[in-house]
Design a protein that fits this description.
mainly alpha; 3 helices; 4 strands; 64% helix
């Protein structure tokens, strides 16, 4: 059973005439987001080095942009937009939850390892 894929992105703000044009449009969007990430990684603006919730603002921006790219790749290239609402939510929310959980675990363990190297042996009282 073949059906037409939606040829718009950004909730209908940009509409394309063919699938090829849409693929190029999505590629351009993902390229722009990646260029922003790379530029921020190279220049590391001082304004973004302040701490927010225990981590530099620049790191939060990287995490958010990475999640945006992963979501958009899933949404367009894996054709999640053409699936039912329940399946979309099950796939996307599960992935987002697991990514956030992984980030939490990495930050907790990374902070502990940093303190061990920085201050020597540390005993945590859980």
């Amino acid at each position: 059973m073949a059906h037409e894929h939606k040829l718009e992105i950004f909730r209908g703000l940009l509409k394309f005439k063919s699938n090829t044009q849409k693929i190029w449009g999505v590629l351009i969007f993902l390229t722009i987001v990646t260029i922003v990430e790379v530029a921020l990684g190279i220049f590391k603006p001082e304004a973004l080095m302040g701490k927010v919730l225990g981590m530099k603002m620049l790191n939060w921006i990287f995490i958010i942009l990475t999640i945006v790219k992963a979501y958009y790749i899933t949404w367009d290239f894996m054709h999640m937009r053409d699936e039912t609402k329940g399946l979309r939510r099950a796939v996307v929310w599960t992935a987002i939850f697991l990514i956030l959980y992984l980030i939490f675990i990495l930050l907790q363990e990374g902070g502990y390892v940093f303190n061990v190297y920085d201050e020597g042996y540390i005993k945590r009282d859980f």
